[in-house]
């Protein structure tokens, strides 16, 4: 599905499938996006708290589906939180196929992004939500422009030291996101994958949400699903300010056990860097030279 580049003057739709938005934070994020030349449209239910902690599933899905149908919207941008999985039965996937546009999110947005990709075949984008534009960093800005406005990316741009936990070179289609959300998707009827294809799995978590034992349990859940037979490599994102040696050891064990290349870096996740990963795009991972090449 051919999705045109973003141009100045295009409209970005913001919805909140997983949290109640803060009007004050949105104000600054919207101002930043407008300063970059884009118009912004908010879902009508982004500030609703029907349940006390979220708008209802239908209200949140209505916002999402309305943005899909709106021909003026070129990108749907949404952040994380909790509860995005509640929307999966309410999303109009056929309408998404008829109205191709960019979808970008991160964290709890993992669930919706992967479901949209699985049900439609569209490339979707993990790594940034509206919150990144509250205090936009140069690396994040360049990542946003390179994926959505400038053209076809060939080489992944690094902004941190990389750690090779298991060497090797491999190719596969990118898939993944926040560790807990991705592990819970396995077996879900809205998540499908091609058993004839190989995948480069990217995952991220953070010490403020999950200790290493919990992260390990999520990884183990992935390992115990037949999907592991299609995993050709693993890229793990930022976890803590100080390198967590126990996490690196867990990732090294993953690589050794499954005989796949494994890299740890701080370029994406819940840290200061928010690189964007296009779910569904083919990638070459060279863990020896620490290079990612988009095919």
Structure commentary:
The protein is α/β, with parallel strands linked by helices and 295 residues long. It folds into two domains: 140 residues, Rossmann fold, CATH 3.40.50.10740; 132 residues, Glucose Oxidase, domain 1 (3-Layer(bba) Sandwich). 31% of the residues lie in helices and 24% in strands. It is built from eight helices and 13 strands. The protein has a seven-stranded mixed β-sheet. Strand 12 and strand 13 form a beta hairpin. Helix 6 runs parallel beside helix 7. The longest helix is centred in the last third of the chain and has 14 residues. The two termini are 17 Å apart. The mean pLDDT is 96.
Please tag this protein with its features.
295 residues; 2 domains; Glucose Oxidase, domain 1; single chain; Rossmann fold; globular; alpha/beta; seven-stranded mixed beta sheet; six-stranded mixed beta sheet
Shape: globular
Strand content: 15-25%
Q: Supply the CATH superfamily name of the largest domain.
A: Murein tetrapeptidase LD-carboxypeptidase, N-terminal domain
CATH fold type of the largest domain: Rossmann fold
Helix content: 25-40%
* SS field, number of helical segments: 8
State the CATH architecture of the largest domain.
3-Layer(aba) Sandwich
Count of the domains: 2
The total beta strand count reads 13
User: Termini distance?
Assistant: 17 Å
In the predicted model, the low-confidence regions spanning at least 5 consecutive residues are: none
CATH class of the largest domain: Alpha Beta
Helix/strand order, N-terminal first: EHEHEHEHEHEEHEHEHEEEE
Q: Which whole number gives the mean pLDDT?
A: 96
Class of secondary structure makeup: alpha/beta
Largest sheet: 7 strands, mixed
Q: Which strands sit side by side, in order, in the main sheet? A: 6-10-9-8-7-12-13
Tell me the radius of gyration: 18 Å
